[in-house]
């Protein structure tokens, strides 16, 4: 009985948070988005390079996935802020880098993918209650990571390396070394997201 009481309190707390977030005025939503932009900047510094690839493994993807879940479409706004502020000179890209030149480098496409991914996750989670169970959430996380982030990243890396690079070489450099780490990130993010999102409507969901 006591466990049930705590579970119900938790369900009420998570509903109250998401309903509060959904009803916030624009200034507070932008403030939350800025906080997640800062979090993305911090996670970008958790990085290491694997042999044979100019693309580092970082903690950014995890932050991007959760930004969409927690902030809805303003998760995408948070990533726009992350990119815009980084391009303007704040050194919070991976390795404390900044500037437009970094965005034009080998990892710039992945960062553009962060924006697309966070917007997509935020739209789906805010729109469809059924997306919030674990199986649907993990599908959402995999799609957002391996399609919406990887594809822009691969396109820019291909252009950066030159048209002479083959598809197999490109995949070997930019995909295969990162699959295991990103699968783990996606599974953890899906588990957290399914646990913290309400399974009832808190806004204007269409499948309520």
Description:
By secondary structure, the chain is mainly alpha-helical. The protein has a single domain, classed as Arp2/3 complex 21 kDa subunit ARPC3. The protein contains 9 helices and 2 strands, in the order ααββααααααα. Strands 1-2 form a two-stranded antiparallel ribbon. α2 packs antiparallel against α3 and α3 packs parallel to α9. The radius of gyration is 18 Å and the shape is globular. The chain starts with a helix and ends in a 12-residue tail after the last helix.
Global Rg: 18 Å
Arithmetic mean of pLDDT: 91
Class from secondary-structure proportions? mainly alpha
How many domains comprise the coordinates? 1
How much beta, percentage-wise? under 5%
Shape by Cα distribution = globular
Strand order of the largest sheet: 1-2
Kindly report how far apart the N and C termini lie: 29 Å
Instruction: Name the helicity range.
Output: over 70%
CATH class: Mainly Alpha
Outline the biggest β-sheet.
2 strands, antiparallel
Contiguous low-pLDDT stretches (5 residues minimum) are none
Order of helices and strands: HHEEHHHHHHH
Count of DSSP-assigned helices: 9
CATH topology group? Arp2/3 complex 21 kDa subunit ARPC3
> What is the architecture at the second tier of CATH?
Orthogonal Bundle
User: How many beta strands in the DSSP annotation?
Assistant: 2
